[in-house]
Structures are given as C-alpha cells and as structure tokens.
Amino acid sequence: MTLVKVNNGFSKSLDGMMKDLFTEFPSAVSKTFREDVLHFPPVNIVDKEAAYTIEMAVPGFEKSDFNVKLENNILTISTEKKETKTETTEKIVRQEFSKKSFKRSFTIDEKIDAENILAKYENGMLLLELPKKEIIKAGAKEINIQ
Q1: Which of 62, 63, 75, 98 maximizes the CB count within 10 A of its CB?
Q2: Residue 99: which residues within 8 A CB-CB, separation 6 or more?
C-alpha cells in the first residue's frame, strides 16, 4: 500500500525531474548528493495504527521558517532561509553548517484525514501527523421478503 510518495508529475521543470530522479537512487548511494547538492533534508515516514508520521531532520531552523501547505492532495513542506553576511574579523578555517532553503512535496491519498493534519517542530525535527480516516464497514442488514 502506498500512502505517501514523492510527487512525480510531468508538469515539472527539467530541474524538478532531475531532483526526482536522484531521490529515487538507493538512499545509501544518494544521501550526500540529495542532502548536500539538492538540499533535501532526510525524511522518515512511519505507519502507525491511527496515523502516519513524517519525521524530517532540519536542525538550525526556527518554527517560523517553515511553510507547510496541503493543496490538491499534495503536501508541501518548504522553507526560505536567507543567509546574512556579517562582517567579522575571525578567519573561518572550515564551515560545514548550512541553512539552505528546500521544498519537499508528498502526495497523500484519500485515506488521510486532511482536516486534522498536525505539525510540530522541536529539537531540530519537524514532525507531521497525518491521521487516518476511520473506515466504516458496512454491516449486514436483514431484508424482509414481502
């Protein structure tokens, strides 16, 4: 059963299609490329009994940096991080920390209760809870013969 998947529409630009191509590589091979070049933060999707949970590792951001939007069954998580230049007399020998903008989109299906999606950011993790809709099973009904 596929619930959440990366949006792979044909209406994307060449850049968008190339990004999707590289997200399909095995995670061990493309992890550095996906995170360092394409700026996609790592994501875990967990299937729980009552909901699906999306866990996104995004340290260094503030809660106000994120934009989470659901439109036409496309859940989009993005951020715009503007890097500011500061004048300093210190000489940086090595700089590995970066706070780059990103945009990730996921397609959700009709089994998700879209009205009750929750998002929370704490300790460098963006957590989204996508509750599952209750499936009402049709019960047996006795029909009288007239």
Answers
A1: 75
A2: 60, 61, 81, 83
Q: How far is CA 110 from CA 102, 107, 124, in A?
A: 26, 10, 30
At residue 41, the 3 state secondary structure works out as: coil
Is-contact 108 115, C-beta < 8 A? no
pTM score, whole prediction: 0.61
Residue 40's domain comprises 5-84+96-131
What digits encode the pLDDT tens for the residues 66-107?
999 999 999 999 987 666 666 677 887 877 666 778 889 999
Which residue from 52, 64, 58, 14 is spatially nearest to 39, judged by alpha carbons? 58
CB 83 within 8 A of CB 99: yes
